Amino acid sequence: MKSKHTFPQKGLPEGAIMTRILKVRKEDTNFTGGTVFGSMCTSPLDIAKKVHGMFLESNLGNPGLYPGTINLEKEVHKAVASLVHAPEGYEALSVGGATEGNILALWRARNESGKKKVVLPESAHFSFKKACDLLGMEPVNIPLDQSYQPDLSVMEEKINDETAVVVGIAGTTELGLVEPIGALAEITGDIHLHVDAAFGGFTIPFLKEGSAPEFDFKIPGVDSLVLDPHKMGLSTIPLGLYYSRDEHPISVESPYLTGDHQKTLTGTRTSASIPAFWSVIKHLGFDGYESIMESCMENTRLLFKLGTSIGLKPIVDPVLNIVSFHHEHPGEVVKEMRERGWNISRTVNPPGLRFVVMPHVTEESIRRMIPVLEESI
Ligand code: 0PR
Hints:
Blueprint: H1 14-27, H2 46-54, H3 67-83, E1 91-95, H4 98-113, E2 117-121, H5 127-135, E3 138-142, H6 152-158, E4 163-169, H7 181-188, E5 192-196, E6 224-227, E7 240-244, E8 252-253, E9 261-262, H8 273-309, E10 322-326, H9 330-339, E11 345-347, E12 352-356, H10 363-376
Parallel strand pairs: 2-3, 2-4, 4-5, 5-6
Antiparallel strand pairs: 1-7, 6-7, 8-9, 10-12, 11-12
Helix pairs in contact: 2-8, 3-8, 4-5, 8-10
The structure holds ligand 0PR.
The site of ligand 0PR has 15 residues, from helix 4.
């Protein structure tokens, strides 16, 4: 009898399934060839791919069954804590990515303060819109000044006794800028200061000393911070790390599981990505990350120079491995580039073309892309 449903009635042998899977896999973009300039993710290191596949049964939502994975999680938290200067008494949580980390920070700030206003720069990632909507909080957007940094005088005016939390970005999505977190901390006083270092967290520490401002727990006013191993941490999706200066106070009892409470938003949660990331940290070490970042910055400078040479005007001088150029109709250029096999992305504020120079982008791929860009602008 023929099935009434599109859900298959009878199973197929592996061979038939793999034929389709291999075909579909080819339809997806991959990072080989360096044609993707619009992604903050990259191909995970080979060791991460290998290890990830070995932990598919782990579920840290039920931690008692996976003591091995939990131990690796502790080691990851400790290693990254030293990278972001988390002080003694910190708490770290593995999350699905910066979206979840940003939600946790706002959730805590709302519950502790009993207030609803979230003061954040216009550069903030759209995940804060989700967080505000979910939590019934109200964004108070701070305009950017001429250098695309938050206007601190407006921020100072807008922070008041209704403010639950202030947000600063270390590695803005569009321009890769590091906002002056130290100056924010001076303005916020006792109000919770959360730093979104989704991109900056695994780039800024590996830059030449002094080329970006401080952004982490070295600044005494920083209360929480999120950073993403699945971006420049060069590991597998999904993994974000949320750090709180002190113990994160929100937890829900999970009595029938092997752990008695949960602190993350998700129940069954990101697990295989943790041993994968542990392996990347061990394999690369600080020196390995530093040398990858150095080559990304070299390629960033090349793209900046070649883009300028074809008449594009940079929006800012790159601090991290993101280059953006002014353009009045970026959507059209993005579309044409896509038709010609190149994935670039766009900025909204101000309108422009955006290139994220991840490790899969090479000098050779930049040199191949530029003539196509010249014809598309
Ligand atoms: N905070 C910042 C500063 C971000 O740039 C991003 C994502 C987030 C938070 C949210 O991170 P998750 O999506 O990991 O929760 N930034 C990129 C973006 O949305 C993510 C991205 C990654 C986009 C790969 C495209 C892509 O191919 O623009």
